[in-house]
Protein: Cupin domain-containing protein
Organism: Gryllotalpicola kribbensis
Amino acid sequence: MQASTPASADGTATTTPRPDDDDLDAVVAGIGERIRALRLKNELTLQDLAERTSLSLSMLSTVERGRTTASLGTLHAIARALGVQITTLFAQSGADDSPIVEFRDQIRDVTDGGLHRRTAAYRADLGIEVYVDDFEPHTSHARTPSQHPGDEIGVVLEGELELQLGGEIFAAAAGDVAQFSARRAHLVSNVSDRPARAVWINLRRL
């Protein structure tokens, strides 16, 4: 038996709204964009990523292009190969109709150096990443000095941080700004017994 079409108060036929796939498509496309950006940041080819994940080139290509909804297992394997938490792949740049990325939607992560990092803004199209970094005592942004394309700018909000840049060490107190080429080996640490906080910006890293 065919279901009847519901009628409105004035007797005209109405249709039940059908959920659209726009939101899901945007999420899938965003994940693919983030994976590609992270892969390029790590200077990996698709073949390199395929070897690290044991996934096929065709699968990785369709995921990066936002043409398929990857399983959590697949995303977990990709995230591990890229050296990030799986939640990082869901980082948002803000809704198309709003300039605001709400606090609850910002991705939180812990680096291998013990730094608690919140992704405040991520714009692959502009080549900019903005983080709010919370350093517990005796933690660093990484285990060992890192280097990558682009430039970094950091504003210390609370406490004190130590910047190891090449063979030199610099101290930065609250209110100080650090800026340097990220191609130089660098390590940002809290060597004190008090917590520290900073806003950190990566430019043209992707």
Observations:
- The CA atoms of residues 84 and 142 lie 12 Å apart.
- The longest helix spans residues 22-41.
